[in-house]
Amino acid sequence: MFTNKGQYNAPSREAIYYRIHKLAYGASWKYDYETFVSWDAKNR
């Protein structure tokens, strides 16, 4: 966080996305990189 604006880099956003979805949906949820990329592009 070079600019100290509270932004996260892409690997951090991916880890947060993965953890939240795994906790919310449990073992039935399967990670898909392309779904993450499309979500990240909209919510960045």
Quick structural gist:
It is built from two helices and no strands.
What does this 3D model show about the protein?
The protein has 44 residues and is an all-alpha fold. It has one domain (10-43). It contains two helices and no strands. It has helices at residues 10-25, 33-43. The radius of gyration is 12 Å and the shape is elongated.
Radius of gyration: 12 Å
- The succession of helices and strands, N to C, reads HH
Total strands: 0
Low-confidence stretches: none
Rough outline:
elongated
Q: What's the number of domains? A: 1
Separation of termini?
A: 15 Å
Q: What is the arithmetic mean of pLDDT?
A: 90
Count every helix, treating DSSP H or I runs of 4 or more residues as helices.
2
What percent strand?
A: under 5%
**Structural class, please?**
mainly alpha
Helix content: 55-70%
Note the main sheet.
none
Map the helices and strands.
Layout: H1 10-25, H2 33-43
List keywords for this structure.
44 residues; mainly alpha
